[in-house]
Amino acid sequence: MKGKKNPLGPIVFWLLIFAVQLAEGHAFPDHSEPSVGSKISSSPSAVKIWFTEKLEPALSKIQVFDQSKKQIDRRDVQAFEGNAAILIVSLPQLHAGRYNVVWRVVSVDTHVTTGNFSFEVTN
Q1: Overall number of domains in the chain
Q2: Which residues contact 18 (CB under 8 A, 6 or more apart)?
Q3: Which domain, by its residues, includes 47?
Q4: Of all residues in the chain, what percent are helix, strand and coil, respectively (each to 5)?
Q5: Quick check: is 109 in a domain?
Q6: Residue 18 has what pLDDT?
Q7: CA 86, CA 70: separation in Å to the nearest integer?
Q8: Predicted structure pTM score
Q9: For residue 10, what pLDDT is reported?
């Protein structure tokens, strides 16, 4: 076997390069407040999501839904304090229950990413 090359080596290399190129320029959540899957004891005043890339706030959105799938956020999504990588949407006083956050963002280079997560208020 000495001297033989692994025929999958170049294929694996190019697949990794392709995967890295696909990921470039796409905005993905880094972290959020409330945290993904968290249980919090009091109502948050907003949902804030930090993304890995700068966004086009006018083309991006965060929506928050209650257990009956009713949108309950204040529909005022904006970049947080001028930082185009952070989106925030304000919330009314929330009752105990599970809430679903749905986001759709457009990065400054026009790539679209979407996702969702939930958190629970236990008050």
Answers
A1: 1
A2: none
A3: 8-121
A4: 15, 40, 40
A5: yes
A6: 45
A7: 24
A8: 0.79
A9: 59
Let me know if residue 3 belongs to a domain: no
DSSP state of 107: B
Domain of 110, CATH number, reads 2.60.40.1220
Alpha-carbon distance of 91 to 70, in angstroms, equals 13
Instruction: Provide the pLDDT for residue 11.
Output: 58
Instruction: Kindly report whether the peptide bond that precedes residue 34 is cis, defined as omega within 30 degrees of 0.
Output: yes
Split the chain (123 residues) into runs of 10 and give each run's mean pLDDT: 55 49 70 96 97 93 97 96 94 97 93 95 91
Give the separation between CA 36 and CA 38, rounded to whole angstroms. 6
Q: Which residue type does 5 have? A: K
Q: Is 73 exposed, middle or buried (0-12, 13-18, 19+ CB in 10 A)?
A: buried
Comparing C-alpha atoms, which of 10, 41, 33 is closest to residue 86?
Answer: 33
